[in-house]
Specification:
The complex is a heterodimer of chains A (124) and B (235). With 124 residues, chain A is of the alpha+beta class. Chain A has one domain: hypothetical protein PF0899 fold (2-Layer Sandwich), CATH 3.30.2320.80. Chain A is elongated, with a radius of gyration of 18 Å. With 235 residues, chain B is of the alpha/beta class. A seven-stranded parallel β-sheet of chain B has the order 4-3-5-2-6-7-8, with helices on both faces. In chain B, α3 links the parallel β3 and β4. In chain B, α2 crosses α8. Classes of the chains: A alpha+beta (124), B alpha/beta (235). Chains A and B meet through α1, β6 and α3 of A and β1, α1 and α6 of B. β6 of chain A pairs antiparallel with β1 of chain B. Bound molecules: guanosine-5'-triphosphate, magnesium ion and zinc ion. Guanosine-5'-triphosphate (GTP) binds next to α2 of chain B. The site of guanosine-5'-triphosphate has 18 residues of chain B, from α2.
Chain lengths: 124, 235
């Protein structure tokens, strides 16, 4: 249920950014934090299901799950959270989330990729 | 997201900070709600289905009745039953039927605000859809999130639904009257929840025999006073 509405929003977001280009997208990369409650496998299924409604969309979906990282004020450093223990190695608790709540589209790839042109664009 | 261009894109386009529409829109509306409800306390009450949220609302209104004015927005995928149950005991309640959806979104609250009279109300409690997963991602413009977990659900929930406990101010352990009959450790559940959220307050309650209800009402009163002082300072 929730995954379906998220996937619908992927398409909505992309349609806004690249009007009329949905059919030209070959891959969509997402970064989702461990706290976002998104299950990659459910997201993939929802994506496959919603894709059928979007005419000529041939894109694949690639999901990268990001671990939770918190910031400790006393040590001025970041620590990865394991087993949902929101404590720094110094023992101080912290809920300052540096990473882990993401729900982002990080990269969109297109068919018809004339790589030399892309490189040139990147160079300039 | 990359700005629109007339050229068909080729190759890869890196998108920085493209937070998904859904959450962006929700957070925007949540901000509007927060702005609108500056003068009263707003609580987002979350739990699994059947933990005892509606029953607690009924008991809370009885206890607060003389002193404080409370209103409830209650979300359920279907039926108006919970709002009817609350109205029967005189609560100013309004049902939000989410149409099968597993969580309330800020937009639903904003719309509901046009249909509930909040004049003189001290605390608005939003009884969220019974679900510990999805509601965690949706800010409803509340001041505090309160998570309820009943003694019959098992004491392993915090680590299974960390985000909910991470973002909560208070955990209510409900149905305390059943503790003698079920393997449920208050210490274990508190320890697990405080691994996630060291500042989490915990109150054990029973709507059936009244245990902890005064403590819960005192918590509400304290937060109401704090909110009023804050809004007084701002105005
Ligand atoms: N033993 C016991 N039962 C309770 C208590 N509070 C509620 N119940 C029972 O638990 C069941 C569910 O209570 P509700 O108040 O409807 O729970 P809810 O969280 O509002 O449920 P949903 O809105 O459907 O998610 C009912 O049968 C209540 O009578 C309690 O403190 N002790
Ligand atoms: Mg209910
Ligand atoms: Zn530290």
């Amino acid at each position: 249920m929730h995954e379906i509405s998220l996937v619908r929003n992927i398409f909505k977001t992309l349609e806004e950014a690249f009007p009329g280009q949905l059919g030209n997208i070959s891959n969509i990369s997402m970064r989702v934090g461990l706290l976002s409650n998104v299950q990659p496998i459910l997201m993939q299924n929802a994506f496959a299901a919603v894709k059928q409604d979007e005419q000529d969309c041939r894109a694949s979906l690639c999901i990268e799950v990001l671990p939770i990282i918190i910031y400790c004020v006393s040590c001025n450093k970041n620590t990865e959270v394991h087993n949902f223990k929101f404590f720094c190695s110094c023992g101080s608790p912290s809920r300052k989330i540096v990473q882990g709540e993401e729900l982002l589209i990080s990269r969109v790839e297109f068919f018809d990729s004339d790589m030399t042109r892309v490189r040139k664009q990147e160079d300039t | 997201m990359t700005p629109k261009s007339n050229y068909a894109p080729v190759g890869s386009v890196w998108c920085d900070n493209t937070t998904m529409n859904l959450l962006k829109a929700n957070d925007y509306v949540a901000k509007i709600i927060r702005e609108k409800l500056k003068d009263l306390l707003v609580i987002n009450l979350c739990s699994s289905p059947g933990s005892g949220k509606t029953t607690l609302m009924q008991e809370t209104s009885k206890l607060l009745n003389e002193k404080l004015n409370m209103a409830v927005l209650v979300g359920d995928p279907e039926t108006e039953r919970d709002a009817i149950r609350m109205k029967q005991v005189g609560i100013n309640a309004l049902q939000i039927v989410t149409g099968g959806m597993c969580h309330i979104e800020a937009q639903m609250i904003l719309q509901a605000l046009d249909h509930i009279n909040l004049d003189g109300v001290d605390v608005l409690i939003i009884e969220n859809v019974g679900n510990l997963v999805c509601p965690a991602a949706f800010d409803l413009g509340e001041d505090f999130r309160v998570t309820m977990i009943s003694s019959t659900e098992g004491d392993d929930k915090p680590k299974k639904y960390p985000r909910m406990f991470l973002t909560s101010e208070l955990m209510l352990v409900s149905k305390a009257d059943l503790l003698p009959y079920v393997p449920f450790s208050i210490n274990a559940v508190t320890q697990d929840a405080r691994d996630i959220n060291a500042d989490l307050e915990v109150i054990t309650i029973s709507s059936l025999n009244g245990v902890g209800l005064l403590q819960w009402c005192a918590w509400l009163e304290r937060k109401i006073i704090e909110k009023k002082q804050k809004s007084f300072r701002i105005n």
